[in-house]
Amino acid sequence: MAVSKLFGAKIKRREDPRLITGRATYTDDMQISGLAYAEIVRSPHAHARIKRIDVEAARRQPGVVAVFTGKDLQGVINPIPTAWLIPNADLKTPPHPALAVDTVRYVGDGVAVVVAEDRYAARDAAAQVRVDYEILPAVVDQQQAMAAGAPLLHADVPNNQAFKWALGNGEATAAAFKEAARDGVVIAQRFLNQRLIPNAMETRSVVARYNSGSGDLTVWYTTQNPHIARFLMSVVTGLPEHKIRIVAPEVGGGFGSKIPFYADEAIVVFCARKTGRPVKWTEDRRENYLTTIHGRDHITDLEVAARRDGTITALRGKTWANLGAYLSTAGPGIPTILHGLMLTGCYTIPNLDYVVYGVFTNTTPVDAYRGAGRPEATYLIERIVDLVAAKLTLDPADVRRKNFIPPDKFPYTSAEGLAYDSGNYGPALDKALAAVDYRRLREEQKRGPRNGKLLGIGLSTYVEICGLGPSSVVGSTGFQGGLWESAVVRLHPTAKATVFTGTSPHGQGEETTFAQVVADELGLPIDDIEVVHGDTAAVPMGWGTYGSRTTVVGGAAIVLAARRVREKAAKIAAHLLEAAEKDIVFDQGRFYVRGSPDKAKTIQEVTLQAYLAWNLPPGVEPALEASAFYDPTNFTFPFGSHVAVVEVDAETGQVALKRYVAIDDCGRVINPLIVDGQVHGGLVQGIAQALYEGAAYGRDGQLITGTMADYAVPKAHMFPTFETGRTETPSPHNPLGVKGVGETGTIASTPAVVNAVADALRSYGITTHLDMPLTPERAWNAIHGQRREVKAR
Amino acid sequence: MKRAVKVTVNGKAYAHEVEPRLLLVHYIRDMLGLTGTHVGCDTSNCGACTILINGRAVKSCTLLAVQAEGASIQTVEGLATDGKLHPIQEGFWEEHGLQCGFCTPGMMLTAVDLLQRNPDPTEEQIRMGIEGNLCRCTGYQHIVNSIQHAARKMRGAAGRATPR
Known about the structure:
The complex is a heterodimer.
Chain A: H1 16-20, E1 36-42, E2 48-54, H2 56-59, E3 64-69, H3 70-73, E4 103-104, E5 110-116, H4 119-126, E6 130-135, H5 142-146, E7 161-168, H6 170-183, E8 185-196, E9 205-211, E10 216-221, H7 226-237, E11 244-247, H8 263-275, E12 279-282, H9 285-291, E13 295-306, E14 312-324, H10 337-340, E15 351-360, H11 374-391, H12 396-403, E16 412-413, E17 419-420, H13 425-436, H14 438-446, E18 453-463, H15 471-476, E19 485-491, E20 497-501, H16 510-522, E21 529-532, H17 550-576, E22 584-587, E23 590-593, E24 600-602, H18 603-612, E25 624-630, E26 639-649, E27 655-665, H19 672-691, E28 723-726, H20 744-762, H21 776-785
Parallel strand pairs in A: 1-12, 10-11, 14-15, 20-21, 27-28
Antiparallel strand pairs in A: 1-5, 2-4, 2-6, 3-5, 7-15, 8-13, 9-10, 9-12, 13-14, 16-17, 18-26, 19-20, 19-25, 22-23, 23-24, 26-27
Chain B: E1 3-9, E2 12-18, H1 24-31, E3 50-53, E4 56-59, E5 72-74, H2 87-94, H3 104-117, H4 123-129, H5 141-157
Parallel strand pairs in B: 1-5
Antiparallel strand pairs in B: 1-2, 3-4, 3-5
Helix pairs in contact in B: 2-5
């Protein structure tokens, strides 16, 4: 095998030239002749009955092509489905019409659509659509929604309970709690994991074109998973899958918010078919805040049982997960499978008893947002480990070490039943503590506040599940799909290569990392390799980009396909060299007979011969390409240790993040520059949950944080320079040894920062748990509610 | 009633009749076909639509096209000259200053304005200087590195490499 040259190399991204010169094509950049524009009329009420819709005035507006309401779509566009039917949870799947017919259930629910000659005309006309509503009482809080007498969203869903999902062993857990109550400690705490708005910088956009002559539908749109979109588009529109082409052009970030199949793409397709015009729809940011999925929104009551030496023996808890008004595509799976199954984290906690209620409310649907369930789980376990340490006056690093899964126990089966593939948690923690000089910081903290600033140090030792995932396992969790991945590696006669992947990267850099992998496998110059993704007409079925799966699963498919190409090339080379195949050596793009490196056939020569097919070995077909469909045998489990150092200003409650160290282990690293970029981006989203971001609804269901002026998308000056480092524990079952790194920063950083602020306040005698975001107001109230004077030192 | 507007964009003169309410960013994207300038919000917070008007960074969603009458505008498409990347483009490429690329044109033009006013900014000055531009992908750190890279390059090219 060729000596690896590019695997591990810090090379510049190959997707960048088009992006830095303004030559990339995002969906809204598309121009097609005859293009019309759609504007969706949306409910201003969180819960209301539609009494009457009058579209006549809108129809008379200049430039209007057509106006449609929910009634026009009935029987043509099927309800928008959810794709994660979690079993044994009494899951309710009430219908979700693409445009509401009788009832609107959240602010932003679509009621009509206007198609016009340009976007200004469409918006003018939309303002003329008259809807008479009978306003109904709304409910936005998930616990209130389950209370007796709460307004009901869906006719056949009592108490608004979408599901009840349970995990663990109640009896054994109860016994562990009994023992801890007698001889150890039991701590109970309510944790809120506030609702977040994903805020991909590009809003969603759809361009649909239907050819009534051929019956072909082409949809260009902002999706992370074009093949899933095609599958669901077929289900929703009734058009046959082979007549649908979905293209994800340049996509401007997703973070999970471009996984779901939304009502809007079905509405735009309906408009294109009905009007015979290609139709474009692009949401504005306010619309994005109202209708693109939100993330998180959990209320959790959690208890922990521990021995006096810090050994944690059990967790018991209940979570109420707000799902919004309808089940989004992956909605039910996020707070259950991707959350509950990671609750015990990186610790040998033997007993668990956990229940999750999924609840409908009059709010925007909730689905996967970066980390998707795992940040919520990591927040719970990493906060409660700190509470155990505080209660027992032990160092939080020591409590973590005491409970870590030891390195010789891998593969390790967790209390939740997952098999963690590999891990070595201690060295990552040691490295992170050394990086901040932990002992010195603790000594400094003991000396008390300096200039009214309270020093806090927060740890987070996380493990997460990604590389989604083995199809039979995800099938058993009710996910209505497989999560294998496809690849085609095609060499052209001149030995230039096109690599097709069923994943659909949108900023993660796999056009570069996948080319690095193929360059090594085939000994080709990287400039001779093009990676193609995001077009169902070009790429075989695949499942897209999310869940830190692209490099792990998609990369594995690519390396397998590349190796098949190499095997075939070796057969041809052996024939050309008149040698036995077993005697052929491949080294950096050259095939030769062992011991005779001077007489070689290059991959370029062999490829040309494969296409000329004048002299192929018997039984070998012409051409040189191979495909692979890779279904992983397990998930991967990246881990690491993060340390946040904060100063809390006792006068103002302002939290200053002074240092942030992230030591991550994502297995083998293909491109360190790209891995660092993924970590940085994840950190900012996780830290922002701890300190800045949070969606807020009024009791009437109005989104108060409804614009970018009201919701705190963080800015550059809110962060220090991050200090990143790595340990490397390859995944034993992945052909590349990689583990995934797209979400680690988000998963790990939220509890690290909250633990640091809590640590600062604790050093000052304040032990109240504070809910996120830790705004100056919240910290100030905690400090001044206790009426302490800060002594200058 | 439409109004006449004449502008120079990336050195090329344009004249159009436009609705008075037409936003400058829509004029640039839809009428001139220069789609490298993006729209990321509707409240002038995100900065994805940042362009240079007479050399200064401006959010093109906050202006009407008619207000740009007579202006000299530069967009991302005009940054590279004669096929050679501008130092800010080189910086973003070298230092992995972008991921999805959506905020990048606006971010680079803001940086150009910043470096014109302050050729040797500190990290803190860069972080404050780009506060009108949001990025959701990079965590900003590689953007800071990219701008520092460009600053070094531009100072070198200007022949006045200031010691740090």
